[in-house]
Design brief:
Shape of chain B: globular
Number of helices of chain B: 20
Number of strands of chain B: 10
Strand content of chain B: 5-15%
Oligomer: heterodimer
Shape of chain A: elongated
Mean pLDDT of chain A: 75
Order of helices and strands of chain A: HHHHHH
Structural class of chain B: alpha+beta
Distance between the termini of chain A: 40 Å
Low-confidence stretches of chain A: 23-28, 139-143
Order of helices and strands of chain B: HHHHHHHHHHHHHHHHHHEEEEEEEEEEHH
Number of domains of chain B: 4
Number of domains of chain A: 2
Strand content of chain A: under 5%
Helix content of chain A: 55-70%
Distance between the termini of chain B: 56 Å
Largest sheet of chain A: none
CATH architecture of the largest domain in chain A: Orthogonal Bundle
Radius of gyration of chain A: 28 Å
Low-confidence stretches of chain B: 658-673
Chain lengths: 161, 673
């Protein structure tokens, strides 16, 4: 491997490490950031289907009270899990704005990524399999059909300069 | 009028059933008798349109005449309701919107049946399938959700009024656009299923339905964006998309429809993906029906579900029946759908379409999964969970970024196979522009390492720049070739280029629109808001803006009472404008609604909401949001509409160029479509 390519690879590895480090420190923040973060992980339970900090009903007894409870819990020094657990015990599981990462709820998070990975795998497999086999003869009248020629040539035109 | 309307929907059902049965029998008899029977079925289909129009006119007339003997008019109108909203009452409730659906389907059916000479046999199949869908909706209108049902007991003096959230100008056009999109997908679905059933040769059905599909997709796009704009302007929470089940229901067929519009090119160009395309359009139609089921059945709760009842079972039955018909047709005729070519390379235009389709479908699946997971959770765990914006954002943003990357890469890949060298040559300038954008944004204060949202935002903007530069480099490259041969300037060459191949360059403009929308969405990472009780002369600062309360007052109008504040706005100390955020109380429905005051610029929206009055002090509570880049979303949408319209413009006649230039060879052969 030439030295220049090694250098490029090394730099790419450094860059990847830097990106990982950035992600690792993403959770850091002060109390305001915690309030904002936790407030977006909770729903207002008045039935408006809105995130707690985005509930815009003036006089909504729930959201104002819940915000006060959240501030009190943060000031009390409770960690995030404890705060969320207290809300679940008081308002039920629907108070969380997204499924937790525990038990069956983990399925909610895993399935979309699984679908993406599986789909990618299938596409790559199909592409490789197609690459190995010769194309089958077209069914029916197929590509040689003179009726289809105007359409084929139109498609050809539309995909060229 | 109610009696005439009731008769009209019943007569329409009878005509629809005749069009379905007689049309179906005619397809089984390829002789002169069958032909005559088919013609009567076609005419019955045309007559269905006039019967449904008559029913819709009866309902609208009843709304204009304040005929509260009709339960539907009582529940969705009142005497002081402005006329445009009385007209909009047609689609404001369950029964009316189902009649409206029937009306749009009948209109599409009318156009299709009038154009039957294009291909009589294929159109006959499509006509019968459309008649089947029409019969389903007319059955609903007649027996499950009749808009002409009468009020019981004493005749009320006034109606209950229209939901205040629907009393907004956009609501007069948003639902029709959305329905035109939903209903419109019935046409390509009917042609696809018909073509499969009759083992129609080749891709002609795709050519016949191409414009239908694009028009439908354009309507659905408009419906979705108008809905987002309506939510932004009316709901007053400062956002435009909340991953609500109703919003999700419109997004799912849009995603599969977008996938279809891309993958269908592979079938046209290379005779590939025939099975895939068939199922994509089946899935799109089924998702349209499924979306309606979601919003009408009440299985999921939604702030947008203005009309719910127990008609869910009808939709489940129809979905099951349609799916069974699709499967049966596919199993019987799948040998007809064999690919004529194979993929030759992973780095090719074909594979980019495959990956594009995969990502769009994963996005669709994710939305469906998140929407239905609360039901699944209740079934498995015995309790519901909320699947809100944090879930959808976290799962879908990486998928959207991948899609944006493919949108940039796709046009640079050639059909069949692309060499690494040509990719590097075509990609270097767009990539450099994206990297330069990242550097500039960081230099101007963007800190992607402070929060995940900021990182995603930076990546989104850089990828949007990548798409934009790719699109413009395609225009410039092609425009130069034309300009060199015709002696015109570059811009004239680009215009001529777009006119020579409207479909391709219209598509690129749609991609550019998507990039603008994504830039707008990226701005949401930097939203700010502040709330304050504001008396006379009180000030509130948000970003560079200072809001000063000049006054607050009330008014009483026939349809509603309102209270609003008058806020003087300065930017960095300089007078800028005056805003009038308002809150209304609609008398008939006894409901509140917000009228947001919004000052929108390319840089940001100053979005001010009158939240109400503090009952102790009597002073208004004002919430101000600073939402960066929102206008880019609406500009992107208009650009997408422009691109879609360009796709539908007939191409200019091709005048052969004087002599092929070397650039043509590289551009056409290397970059391809």
């Amino acid at each position: 491997m030439p030295a220049s390519r090694k250098l490029v690879l090394r730099r790419a590895a450094h860059l990847a490490l830097l990106c990982l480090a950035i992600f690792a420190f993403l959770g850091a923040g002060d109390e305001n950031a915690r309030f904002n973060d936790l407030g977006h992980r909770l729903m207002c339970v008045c039935g408006c289907n809105q995130i707690l900090l985005e509930c815009n009903h003036v006089g909504c007894n729930y959201s104002e009270h819940m915000r006060d409870e959240l501030i009190a819990a943060i000031n009390h020094g409770d960690n995030d899990d404890l705060v969320l657990q207290a809300f679940i015990q008081k308002y039920g599981t629907t108070v969380l704005s997204a499924p937790t990462h525990q038990g069956f709820n983990r399925v909610a998070w895993l399935v979309p990524y699984l679908a993406l990975v599986l789909g990618l795998g299938v596409v790559v497999m199909v592409v490789n399999a197609w690459g190995r086999k010769p194309p089958p003869p077209p069914a029916g009248r197929g590509s040689g059909d003179p009726d289809l020629e105007p359409f084929r040539s139109q498609a050809q035109r539309e995909t060229e300069i | 009028m109610p009696q005439l309307g009731s008769f009209a929907v019943l007569f329409a059902l009878a005509l629809g059933v005749y069009a379905l049965v007689a049309g179906g029998l005619a397809l089984l008899r390829p002789d002169a008798v069958g032909e005559r029977l088919g013609e009567t079925a076609r005419r019955a289909g045309i007559a269905t349109f006039f019967a449904v129009v008559l029913a819709a006119l009866c309902l609208v007339t009843a709304a204009f005449q304040n005929d509260f003997s009709l339960a539907y008019i009582y529940h969705h109108s009142n005497r002081d309701l402005p006329l445009p909203y009385k007209f909009a009452a047609l689609w404001s409730g369950q029964e009316g919107s189902l009649l409206f659906w029937s009306l749009l389907l009948a209109t599409y059916g009318l156009v299709l049946r009038l154009r039957h000479n294009v291909d009589r046999r294929l159109f006959a199949y499509a006509s019968v399938i459309i008649a089947g869908v029409q019969v389903f909706f007319l059955l609903l209108v007649n027996f499950a959700a009749n808009p002409f049902a009468m009020m019981q007991g004493a005749l009320p003096a006034d109606g209950a009024g229209l939901n205040p959230l629907l009393q907004y100008p956009e609501m007069v056009i948003h639902p029709p656009m959305l329905y035109l999109g939903y209903v419109g997908f019935t046409v390509p679905f009917a042609f696809a299923l018909g073509a499969l059933m009759m083992r129609y040769p080749g891709e002609k059905w795709i050519h016949i339905t191409r414009r239908w599909t694009m028009v439908t997709w354009g309507f659905l796009t408009c419906g979705i964006f108008l809905g987002a704009h309506w939510a932004y302007s009316v709901l007053g929470w400062g956002g435009y998309w909340a991953w609500d089940p109703v919003e999700n229901a419109s997004l799912m067929p849009w995603l599969t429809g977008t996938a279809f519009l891309h993958s269908v090119m592979m079938q046209e160009k290379r005779g590939m993906l025939k099975i895939w395309n068939m199922w994509l359009i089946f899935a799109t139609f089924l998702l349209c029906i499924f979306g309606t089921f979601l919003t009408r059945s009440g299985v999921v709760s939604s702030v947008h579900a203005f009309a719910q009842s127990s008609i869910g079972n009808w939709f489940v039955g129809f979905l099951a029946l349609t799916f069974a018909v699709c499967v049966a047709a596919f199993v019987k005729n799948r040998s007809h759908l064999q690919s004529e070519n194979r993929l030759e390379s992973l780095v090719s235009r074909e594979s980019s379409f495959l990956f594009n389709n995969l990502i769009l479908l994963v996005a669709c699946f994710t939305v469906l999964w998140g929407t239905l997971f609360p039901i699944l959770s209740e079934w498995v765990q015995g309790h519901k969970v909320t699947v809100g914006p944090p879930f959808f954002n976290r799962v879908n943003i990486p998928v959207a970024l991948l899609l944006l990357l493919l949108t940039a890469l796709g046009p640079l890949l050639a059909w069949r196979k692309t060499s690494f060298e040509s990719l590097k040559r075509n990609f270097s300038i767009p990539a450099a522009a994206a990297v330069a954008t990242a550097i500039i944004l960081i230099a101007f204060g963007m800190r992607p390492w402070t929060a995940q949202s900021a990182l995603y935002s930076l990546m989104t903007i850089c990828l949007a720049v990548l798409v934009t530069v790719t699109v413009f480099s395609e225009f410039v490259r092609g425009g130069r070739v034309i300009a060199r041969h015709t002696g015109q300037n570059l811009f004239a060459g680009m215009a001529r280029l777009a006119h020579r191949n409207t479909r391709r360059y219209g598509g690129y403009i749609v991609h550019f629109g998507v990039a603008l929308v994504m830039i707008g969405l990226a701005g949401s990472a930097f939203n700010q808001d502040k709330e304050k009780e504001m008396g006379y002369g009180d000030r509130m600062t948000v970003g560079a803006y200072t809001l000063t309360c000049r006054s607050y007052t009330q008014d009483d109008k026939p349809n509603y009472r309102s209270e609003w504040a008058i806020l003087d706005v300065t930017e960095n100390g300089k007078p800028l404008t005056t805003l009038y955020p308002e809150r209304r109380f609609y008398k008939a429905s006894q409901q509140m609604a917000t009228m947001v005051a919004n000052r929108s610029t390319l840089k940001e929206d100053l979005y001010v909401v009158y939240e109400g009055v503090n009952e102790d002090t009597g002073r208004p509570i004002i919430k101000a949001h600073l939402n960066p880049l929102v206008m880019w979303i609406w500009l992107g949408w208009l650009t997408m509409v422009g691109g879609t319209m360009l796709c539908m413009v007939p191409e200019a006649a091709r005048v052969p160029l004087a002599a092929p230039a070397p650039v043509r060879a590289t551009a056409a052969a290397e970059a391809g479509d």
